């Protein structure tokens, strides 16, 4: 029963579309500019660095908020299932973020919402945040491909969920059934992330994926180089 509650509550929080709201406040439907994606990366490209980080902050915050609500309510009744509560809630948030019913199921890709998940996991297992954030930053700094960093971070998340579970690092006395369930949820989130980035994967292989720069000067220079 708690799984369904996590999904429903998470989906409700995921419907808070930060990029869409930010765009509307500036008279633009973000789904009609740039990549058409209602996420922080497209917000950064369309409106600038401040917009990108604002959307990133609020999309991560909605995951954190949903998890906190359920952790301190459902967690009281299911104290041994905190890891499951976090992951099931994250699934709900990302589904709501990626497929908002009131926007014809066209939302973002769930990466900022994922940041909220790994921040929420710090109290349970801080190595998630340390390793995933470090890997993403290294990939982004060296290649400027947000998509590649996001996908590889999720692959690492899936691998670490299996490893941490087997080492007893996700909670005490977790049953094999619970560990398998956690692995399945991690796999689902990874597979969904790859699916949402499927067009990016094709462009990466073809060498024509768009790069992202935080600096306005570098973004403009990159844009000019593409126009030449």
List key phrases describing it.
228 residues; mainly alpha
Strand content: under 5%
Q: Biggest sheet: strands, sense, closure? A: none
Classification by helices and strands: mainly alpha
Q: Please bin the fraction of helical residues.
A: over 70%
Itemize the secondary structure elements and their pairings:
Elements lengths: L1 H13 L3 H8 L14 H8 L1 H23 L2 H4 L4 H17 L12 H10 L6 H17 L2 H21 L9 H21 L1 H9 L9 H12 L1
Question: Explain this structure to me?
Answer:
By secondary structure, the chain is mainly alpha-helical. It has one domain (2-220). 71% of the residues lie in helices and 0% in strands. The protein has 12 helices and no strands. It has helices at 2-14, 18-25, 40-47, 49-71, 74-77, 82-98, 111-120, 127-143, 146-166, 176-196, 198-206, 216-227. The model has no long low-confidence stretch (mean pLDDT 93).
């Amino acid at each position: 029963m708690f799984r369904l509650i996590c999904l429903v509550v998470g989906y409700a929080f995921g419907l808070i579309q930060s990029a869409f709201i930010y765009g509307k406040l500036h008279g633009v439907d973000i789904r009609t500019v740039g990549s058409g994606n209602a996420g922080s990366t497209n917000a950064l490209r369309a409106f600038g660095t401040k917009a990108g980080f604002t959307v990133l902050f609020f999309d991560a915050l909605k995951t954190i908020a949903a998890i906190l609500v359920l952790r301190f309510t459902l967690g009281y009744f299911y104290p041994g299932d905190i890891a499951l509560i976090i992951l099931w809630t994250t699934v709900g948030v990302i589904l709501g973020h990626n497929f908002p019913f009131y926007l014809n199921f066209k939302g973002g890709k769930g990466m900022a919402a994922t940041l909220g998940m790994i921040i929420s996991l710090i109290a349970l297992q801080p190595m998630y945040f340390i390793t995933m954030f470090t890997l993403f930053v290294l990939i982004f700094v060296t290649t400027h491909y947000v998509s590649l960093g996001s996908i590889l971070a999720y692959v690492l998340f899936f691998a670490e969920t299996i490893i941490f579970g087997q080492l007893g690092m996700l909670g005490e006395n977790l049953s094999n059934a619970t560990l398998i369930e956690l692995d399945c949820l991690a796999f689902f989130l990874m597979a969904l992330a790859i699916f949402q980035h499927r067009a990016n994967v094709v462009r990466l292989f073809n060498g024509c994926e768009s790069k992202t720069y935080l600096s306005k000067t570098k973004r403009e220079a990159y844009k000019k180089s593409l126009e030449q």
